[in-house]
Amino acid sequence: MSLERFLSNAVSSWMNDEGPNSDIVLSSRVRLARNFTDFRFSTLYSAEEAKEIVGTVRDKVPHYPKTLGQLEFLATNEIQPLQKRVLMEKHLISPNLAENENEGAVLLSNEEDVSIMINEEDHIRIQCLYPGLQLKEALNRANEIDDWFESEFDYAFDEKRGYLTTCPTNVGTGLRASVMMHLPGLVLTQQLNRIIPAINQLGLVVRGIYGEGSEALGNIFQISNQITLGKSEEDIVEDLLSVVRQIIEKEESAREALVKTSNIQLEDRVFRSLGVLEHSRIIESKEAAKCLSDVRLGIDLGYIKNISKNILNELMILTQPGFLQQYSGGPLRPNERDIRRSSLIRERIKLDKDACEEEE
Asked: Are 183 and 175 in contact, with CB atoms under 8 Å apart?
């Protein structure tokens, strides 16, 4: 396995599986932040210490249990900026690690459902990704990996405060649990702006597709916990699950209402967006995301039957600036990216339709 293997496909292996409620919940993620007692935190450590942390973790990788899977070690100082951007667009590394000038690394599983970042904001961050609504499964997997790391390293831990982290907002469990949701019904019925404040009051936060500071492209929103101290990991996940299930119900009701009251308008919107994707020669990322969201909704509602549901997952990544340039073999100016984006979308939709016709 090599870096190229992680760069070549827009869709990670785990994304090809359908999880519970996958028509609305695209993915579930659990991330654990941990630090080692033998090193200063990232705000204070030197370049030499950062290098030593990477080397220390790398030396332990051969002992990683086969029962937990196989991990590939990638040093970030050996990865080009464009390649880092692609890994970030696939959610395999964070924007923080992609931009970090200190020596860092990432450990990736074959299926890309496990990503362990070294020298991001904390010494290590263990991330597990699952399709659909599978937060408990992601937490169990992350805990198994965390148990192994804790058996090999001394964690910075306080009996009262829990796991100590660089940012105080992560102290306690060090857990960030999140779900990626496609919510076009709530957006089109203008309910989401009323729901978000209520979600925030429950200690949760709603962000864009790439987390903090990112935009909610294509009606895709990331909902995660804010509180990490004073609750167990299981309670944090259960609280998030409870809210997510309510949002799923509201999204389903919103879609039903749209079909009942505005069916022809909704169908027209879906097929206009499909027409733009199939025939445009230039398309910007925001317009592409909006049209892809409409088409995915049309697939979920049964308006469109000859295109795969996974098209949203794949094209939302494939049409991002980094992946577009990687796919094209080099840097592209903005207008060149818009031309290449439209071409890729047309090609992808045609392949999907051809495959469906062959199956019939």
From this structure: no
pLDDT band of residue 326 (cuts 50, 70, 90) is confident
Q: Has domain 1-14+31-149 been given CATH number 1.10.645.10?
A: no
Domain boundaries, the chain: 1-14+31-149, 252-359
Is 30 marked as binding a ligand? yes
Alpha helices in the chain (DSSP H): 3-8, 47-60, 81-89, 95-99, 135-152, 184-188, 192-201, 233-279, 285-300, 311-318, 321-328, 334-359
Q: Is 216 annotated as a binding residue?
A: no
Residue 303 known to bind ligand: no
Is residue 224 part of an annotated ligand binding site? no
Q: Which of 75, 320, 335 is nearest to 217 (CA)?
A: 320
Residue 125 marked as a ligand binder: yes
**182 assigned to a ligand binding site:** no
Q: What is the pLDDT of residues 47-94, one digit of tens each?
A: 999 999 999 999 999 999 988 989 999 999 999 989 999 999 888 999
**207 carries a ligand binding annotation:** yes
Asked whether 224 and 237 are in contact (CB, 8 A), the reply is no
